[in-house]
Every structure is written in structure tokens, then in C-alpha cells.
């Protein structure tokens, strides 16, 4: 009897491997346009590869995510993707997944649990993003003097701290490039605009500002409006570099009002699925952290086409 | 006129002291120039940037005068902004867009007013409902993204100028003056104060307190919608997640700094307007002075604390007592001198 059951189980497992894989995806919620785009791209990637995607929206609550994970485990999915809302409190549910031999891939954010409880984490290196932005500016100004103003993200948030650090790492040792003013714009357009207005007032109507570094595109878009209203030409009088690569910044770049953006790709699922396929095929363990590319886009990269490609992703 | 001026003297002095303080750190603070099309200068920015909080504070003053509070105004800003951006991108004209956004604000106020006046829920709880739920409504309208538009007529409300003066400044000044005139040139202000001091007694005296209450919440919703329109027009997009976020607290603070009591009764819209200017002077001043952003909230809280302590009725009573004591001693000493 036991043998029959085992054989049956093996047969079932075989047929499951042969047919479409089922992947559970626990998303944080709809906190930002970027996250909506991440969801859209995860669905697209799953569809292209012929997976069945079980999607669960946690509405920013950890208990919903844990419940979703438990239900994925009960359904016996082939893999779980999770964008964890907080860093702590995942040990027991990750343990359950491990006991059920379901690989878990973390998207975009990290957890504090031991790293043998999950297969891998896919994410962006926020410090590196800042470095890419800083290096672009160094290449752009050469040896000329450049006074930079910085629009920081929400004070104390990890993207704000890391993106500030990365930019400083890049310009360190280059005495010609200097951050003269730095304030938080809370990652919002309105914040970016009002703080930029004050920066312009404080720096001789903007004449003493050579470049703006914004921790996200939305603040840069707000600042562009402030610069225009002050009678200056954004992108020419003041160079503008920001991070995220949301559709609207490509529109600004196409109009010559922004110069460069560093992409925080919402396609975290692509690398995750690649790692999972290798794991399913022959049990290859990927690295514990897969860093996504922080690609730089400038006005030379056909921003109009990039805008068209991105505008329907749900940003 | 002279009496109301006397009433807001402490606020005016505070504002002047604050401007002097910021000028100490940033000497060009009070310089204003004209660049051919518009006035430019930090003071002009303060007058423009204080528009949302000032508009909210007009409505909030009336609500607070009835011993109520409206926590939903920040959210109503987001809803009105979302409605306006949705309407203008769907091809409605500017008048229809504005009408729809203002109607949304009035509807939100009606909802709050009915909960408070008809059902009798405490104002802080009643308006908390919309504060929490409303942002979701705004997000449903914008589908969670920043809804941008390129209509220049609508953008004018946020960033245009009339005779070189920013339009938002004109809007909040006009709103404040109109509402203050309506309150003081008619009996409306008196009726609101009566309702705030004792609703039951004023109802017995023939004041239709229920209608008054609903009306002030609708006025607050209307002002919040105006603020939402300004904020949306300013960035040419409706940001449902962030528009008006925490501004209800700034509005309440402006009303309180303006010398109005949260216990209702007598109110001064002029005081609340100066309160809004004080808050914006602090915000702009911190950025201009170039402090690191970690200090923003600490500096703001410190200054607000100093302002409120200086306005404290207990302290002013002590001060008055001290003054009379000193003058009494002086006369006593003078009398002794004369006697000897």
C-alpha cells in the first residue's frame, strides 16, 4: 500500500515537472507606481515562460504575507516569490517552506533571517545607483567647477541614506564637484518643487547651481518645474540627474529638460525566474544575492521610445 | 478694526521676530526683486507656498470655533486633486473641472457634517473615518499613479501670476478676506461662536445648531478642495499618495498659533492666516539657512514650542501679575519716599 502511494506520489511529481510550473507571488501592496510596474512585469515574465502565477496582494501587512505563504505551501507550488514588507519575523514561515522543499526567492527587499532559509534574493544595490549617478556627472563636467544641489529622499529611509552615500563615494577626490546644498524633498513632486525654489533663491537665482542630483525622478520632475518658473532652462543651465527611471522622466529627457536617470528596474522577476529554472533543472544553487543592473539612461538613449515602452506598466 | 488688530498683535510680533531670525541666517530673506514678469524673492515664495495650509486653516478655524476638528482636510485635498486631474485629462473644460473638484470637497464636508451634527459622533472620530478612507478613494480615481496633465489654464492656478503676484497667494488672501467679511459683516460668526460655546443653549436660544455645524464642515471641505486644486495645479499632476499628507496637522497648528482655542468659541481668521505664514516661514527658513534635513522637524518643533509658550494664557496671567506687583511696589516705594 505504501509502495503504491509512493509510486503515485512520484508519478504526480513527474507530471507536475512536465506540465507548467506554478509560482506563488506575495506582493507588498500597491504602495507606489514602481511596485505596480513590478507586479505587471512579474505577470508578464510568468506568462512568457508559461508559468501559472498565483498572485497575492498583502496590502502592506506582514500577517497577510505570512498567510499567503502558508496557503502557497499548502497548495504545493513549485516556487515562491516574495517582496517582504518588513525585514523581521520570517523565520518560522520560511522554515515551513523549506520543510516542504519549496524554494523561496526574495524580491527587491531583504529579510533578517538566516540566508539558508531562502534560495536567493534579487535586488538593486542602492549605493551603486548613487555611484552611477555621480560618475555620470563627473564624466559630464570634466575638470570644470560644478556646484551640485541635492534633493534627498525621506530623511532616514534606506534609499535616501544609500543613494546619498553612493553619490558622495563617486565624487570623492574630485575637488571640482561639490555638493553645496542638500535637503529632503520627501520623494514627492511637490517636495522637490518647493525645496528647489528655495535652493534657487539661496544660490543667486540659480546662477551658482551647475547640477541637481535628485534621489528619485519624481522630485527631479518637481524641480524641473521650479527651474522653468525661475526662467532658467532645466537640462542646460542646470544639469539634472536622478534615479528610478519612471516613464515621466523619459518624457522630460525627450524634451531636453532632464539629462540622465539611473534605472531601478522593476523587472526583479526575470533574474528570479532564471535562477529558479537553473535550480529546477539540476539543483544549481544561485548566489545569495543577485544584483540587478543599475542602468544609466541619457538623452542619447531614445527617451521617447523608452517612455512608450514603460507608460503602460502601471507606474 | 483696531480691536481685531490688537487681538493679533502677538502673532504679528512672532512673525516679525521669526522673519528677523531667518534673516540672521540668510540675509537675503527679505529682498524682493521684479524680473519683468513676476516678483521674485524668498518672501514671495513664503506667500505662495503657504497657500494650501492657509486655505485649510480658513475652514479649520470655523470648525474649531464650533468646538470641532476636521482631520480629513489633507485627504480631501488629495480627493479634490484627483477629481480635478481626472476631469481635465478626460477633456472637461476648466470651469467644469473646478466645479467637480469643489463639489467633491463639499460632498466630503457634508459627509463629515452629517456624522457630527446628525449622528452625533465626536468630530475627531467622525473625520478620522474620511482621513483614513479618503486617500483610498483618491487612489482609486488616479489608479494609484500620479495623474499628470498638460493643461496650461489649470496649471495657472498653481504657478501663474497676476500683476507679478503668484495666483495661489491671491486665492488664499481673497478666500480669507471673503470668509472673514462674511463672518463679521453678518451674524454668521456670532452664531458659530455660540454653537461652539454651548450647542444646547444656543439651540434653545433659537440658533439652528445642526445646520450651522453641517455648514462649517462643508466650508472646511470646500477650502480643502481649493487647497487640493492649488497643490495639483502646482505640480501639474495629482499625487494621491502624497498630496496634503499631514497637512491637516499643519492647518490645526496654524489655527492654534493664531490664538484660537481648541475649546471653540471666539475665533480669528486673521490670526490663523498669520499662523499659516509663521509655519511656512519656518519651513522655508530652514531650507534657506542650509541646515541638514535631519534637523528640520526638531527646529520646527522647537520654534512652535517657543511660540505656544509665549502665547500661553497661564504665562500671560503670571506676566500680568508680575507687572502689577512691580508697579505696586514702585508706587509704594514712591509713596514712602514722599512720606519721609
Automatic annotation (TrEMBL), chain A:
InterPro entries: Peripla_BP_I, SBP_2_dom, YtfQ_transport
Segments forming domain Periplasmic binding protein: 24-268
Pfam families: Peripla_BP_4
Keyword Metal-binding appears in the UniProt entry: no
Domain of life of the native organism: Bacteria
GO molecular function: carbohydrate binding
Keywords, sorted A to Z: Signal
UniProt-listed SUPFAM superfamilies: Periplasmic binding protein-like I
Subcellular locations according to the entry: Cell envelope
Chain ranges passing through the membrane: none
The keyword Protein biosynthesis appears for this protein: no
Coiled coil: none
Signal peptide (from-to): 1-20
First-listed, main subcellular location of the protein, grouped into a coarse class: other
Cellular-component GO terms for this entry: cell envelope
Family designation: Belongs to the bacterial solute-binding protein 2 family.
PANTHER family on file: D-ALLOSE-BINDING PERIPLASMIC PROTEIN-RELATED, GALACTOFURANOSE-BINDING PROTEIN YTFQ
Name of the molecule in the record: ABC transporter substrate-binding protein
Organism whose genome encodes this protein: Georhizobium profundi
